[in-house]
Amino acid sequence: MSEPQNFYAEVGGAPVFEKLVARFYQEVAADDVLRPLYPEEDLGPAEVRLRMFLEQYWGGPRTYSDQRGHPRLRMRHAPFKVGPIERDAWLRCMRVAVDESGLDAAHRDQLWQYLQYAAMSMVNSDF
Ligand code: HEM
């Protein structure tokens, strides 16, 4: 899926992605399904990785690949069981973050379509 390179700039750049991902991880921290999946006690580094990835995907700085190499996200999720329950929990947390992002409806929809598709494609378990 390729997205317009200007989405990042159009929505206001770094602060928007910071807010979105910080809000998402607030939800993750309180989620009984997702929280146990995260190996580190500190969710901060995971927050930075997701933020860098999303910024890069939407046309912002390429810091994610500079630091982490090729995303290969399905492979990176292989150690974690991602079934329908985990996918729905992830999307629930993201929905809160997207709803509170302050983006206009068109950008919100565009972002949400992508996140739903991406979450679906990360599923690696039937249960
Ligand atoms: C990493 C869970 C979907 C992007 C992780 C980690 C977990 C996780 C447990 C390890 C934390 C870390 O050390 O970074 C899940 C679950 C999902 C999901 C349960 C449910 C579908 C997604 C989606 C995206 C994404 C849809 C992208 C749009 C990332 C990125 C990393 C990551 C960029 C860090 C990869 C790295 O560089 O090591 N995820 N994830 N995840 N996830 Fe997900």
TrEMBL record:
Metal-binding: present as a keyword of the record? yes
Keywords of this entry: Heme, Iron, Metal-binding, Transport
**Among its keywords, does the record have Ion transport?**
no
| Source domain of life | Bacteria
Entry's Pfam families?
Bac_globin
User: What InterPro entries does its record include?
Assistant: GlbO/GLB3-like, Globin-like_sf, Globin/Proto, Hemoglobin_trunc
Gene3D superfamilies, A to Z: Globins
Family to which the UniProt record says this protein belongs = Belongs to the truncated hemoglobin family. Group II subfamily.
| Protein name, as recorded | Globin
